[in-house]
Amino acid sequence: MSERLRELIIALRPEISLRLVKWQYLLVFFLFLVLISIPVFVNLDKPVVRLWDESRRGINAYEMYHNGNCLVTHYDGEPEMWGTKPPLLIWLQVISMNIAGPGELALRLPSAIAAFLTCLLIFLFSAQYLKNPLFGLIWALVLVTSNSYIDFHAARTGDFDALMTLYMLLYSLAFFKYIEEKKNKDLYLTIIFITLAAFTKGIAGLLFLPGLIFYAILTGSFMMILRNRHTYYGMLIFLVVIAGFYLGREAVNPGYLKAVWANEIGGRYFETIESNQENYWFYLQRIKWPGMIKWWPFILPGVITGLLMKEIIFRKLITFGLIMTVTHLLIISASKTKLEWYNIAEYPYFALFIASFIWFIISIIFKISEISKLSFLKILALVFAVIIFYEPVRIMAKKVFDPSERSWYLKDHQVLYVLRDGLHGRRDLDGYILLHTGPKAHTMFYMNLMKDKGIDIARKEKDRLDPGDKVIAYQPDVKKFIEENYNIVILEEQSYVRIYQIEKKLPILNDFYQTQMNKPLL
Fold first, then answer.
1. Which residues pair with 489 in a beta bridge?
2. Could you give the C-alpha distances from 440 to 341, 435, 444, in angstroms and in order?
3. 3-state secondary structure string across 32-47
4. pTM reported for the whole predicted model
5. Which terminus has fewer CB within 10 Å in the chain: N or C?
6. What is the pLDDT of residues 12-54, one digit of tens each?
7. Mapping DSSP to helix (H, G, I), strand (E, B) and coil, where does residue 499 land?
8. Pairwise CA distance, residues 6 & 12, whole Å
9. pLDDT digits (tens, 9 = 90+) for 107-135
10. CA 400 to chain centre
């Protein structure tokens, strides 16, 4: 290789650091506030609560809001033994309900704020530690245009994962800083954020720990950590907080620890829970679709280009992020129970790799422009940024500005729009009856809110309806039963939802009642 070519390669080698004057920094920060706030907060309360986890958390928070029991979460008046995670998210939702009032916004605001703080952490870490706030903006923007991150069960719903992801990113980056700078302050921050992650989603919040241990061994820092007395002080903090909570709840709610084992640890990891069984490669496949849709092809190139950056600290960060994601993927891929949001904690590091690729290309364009003294070439960097962000931003914008119900969710959720109309006075549902079978947390959430407003909507068994009853039904089996066993008038129909007025029981149902009444008692 000629000396001239060597000098050219060195001159073109991208750098992560970037000098900005104060007004430029403030402009980048203003862009950050605008561009990140839109996907995180706009129309946050427009979709109805989600069936299963979000609505269940909604009931937990609503009942804690009313009963004031901050240790034991409740569902339908009984201690919650299905969602057995620690109550940090529920506490935040209750605080939110005290500020904004019970509803979708209060339920989702803690997750949205956690997502915003995750992006702010990325921005500040880039600005202060990597000396490049513009890279922080790109990194954060990639994250909030990642399909599964700005979606149900993450940044925009009342679930655990956005809050847990914030704490996992905090403790992993604090640990990275500790390895680099050897400051005990960072070690304590690591342990505090580990504690908060565990207090958000139990053992799931600890799944970056194997990666931290591997990185410590790889960098020759493991024995230093073991010899540091502050490590053990920090571990004591963790044990007091976490063991204190679990043992305290077991004391007032016997059987809780057994439920935790069944729902979170042995039962979920070694057995398939609720038919959530997938193949080993499930999470890798979900990164491609729907996880990062337009971004995933740049993950591996981002790792490679990150390792080619001039600053060793950035190369270390890429290596660290790779270890975090790979170890986490290996752990969750071995679990028998698999759900698509279990790898949300990896998304900030995927976004780091992709941002690395984007910055690599932009930096090379700028260096070519400077070497060739052709300033107009810098416009190519803007063109490249527009092209690469166009589709992810378009998908994100459609999701945020038009959060219409997906067809496969509508059959379970359309009834909630009817109930919400009743809650907000857009229709009169006072005295109506809701019929349905199966999980009821999503409908119970709105029925509880209506009860607080004095709107009486009741439940009945489908074979116990009386003439004059006005009945809401949306499940095919329930609608079929009503139409086969009663004379009815259909008052309203919206694809899946039908509202009936009961005229009278048909003879077949009266015969059924008579048979039941005449059965001998065993």
1. 501
2. 22, 10, 6
3. HHHHHHHHHHCCCCCC
4. 0.94
5. C
6. 788 898 889 999 999 999 999 999 999 999 999 999 999 889 9
7. strand
8. 10
9. 999 999 999 999 999 999 999 999 999 99
10. 15
